[in-house]
Amino acid sequence: MRTSEAPRPIEAEDVLDVNQRHKPWLIGRERLFSAMDTVDSDGDRQRGLLPIE
Length: 53
Hints:
Blueprint: E1 14-17, E2 25-28, H1 29-36, E3 39-40, E4 45-46
Antiparallel strand pairs: 1-2, 3-4
């Protein structure tokens, strides 16, 4: 993982995760999907990912 001031996604290997408090940083796809593979306690529904180009 790396941190940087300017978010720059590495499309072939990583996705960009931006959190205002912790600055932008890159995580691997497997880690992102594992974190999202949970059920939302508020609505009892599976979380998802919306890709935007």
